[in-house]
Write a structure and sequence with these properties.
Length: 198
């Protein structure tokens, strides 16, 4: 039997996945979590074979959870918000599978088996998009500052939160906007979010 942990804050989705996977003779659901913290605690206590993690959890994201539990079990991101940047970040974090919530129950079960056996599965359309878009042109610091700008925070607040001077923040935002061919930081943030780079 392959033991599976599910983490999704949407109770209906999580319950539906659990019900559908429980119909498979070789899969058993050992835990269901609604938050990233809960998923980490359950993974440590239950030691599942595979964890299916929603990308967007209320307290963190599924990729951050995967980084914490990859030494315990194999991880798969299941999302309705798959963007090329998310895929690349997930694969860099050691995630073994990345797929959309629109897949059939048969495919989901097959992915669990494939990942459990040591294989990988990436949604083919998302993989093609990630290849065509390429890597993010932003540095780590530019992405961090741009992510704070995306919340609508003023430069002084961004500077305080990132332990930088306002002038340095302006420089990072200007550089990011230039790299993304954006007229201002707001357009740059929207572009970076659309590609999953922030």
């Amino acid at each position: 039997m392959i033991s599976v942990l599910l983490a999704d804050d949407e109770h209906l989705i999580r319950g539906a996945m659990a019900a559908l996977l429980s119909l498979e003779d070789d899969l058993t659901i050992v835990g269901q979590a609604a938050t990233g913290g809960e998923a980490v605690r359950m993974a440590r206590a239950l030691r599942p074979d595979v964890a299916l993690l929603d990308l967007q959890l209320p307290d963190t994201d599924g990729i951050a959870v995967a980084e914490q539990i990859n030494s315990i079990c194999r991880t798969v991101i299941v999302t309705s918000h798959g963007l090329p940047g998310h895929l690349k970040r997930a694969l860099s974090a050691g995630v073994r599978g990345f797929l959309s919530k629109t897949v059939s129950a048969d495919i989901l079960a097959t992915v669990v088996r494939t990942v459990h056996a040591g294989g990988r599965y990436v949604d083919p359309q998302l993989a093609a998009e990630a290849i065509s878009i390429g890597d993010s042109p932003l540095t780590v610091r530019e992405a961090e500052v741009l992510a704070l700008a995306a919340t609508g925070a003023p430069v002084d607040d961004i500077a305080r939160r990132s332990s930088l001077s306002p002038g340095t923040v302006r420089n990072y935002l200007s550089s990011a906007a230039g790299k993304l061919n954006a007229v201002n930081r707001h357009e740059a943030a929207r572009t970076a979010q659309a590609f999953g780079w922030i």
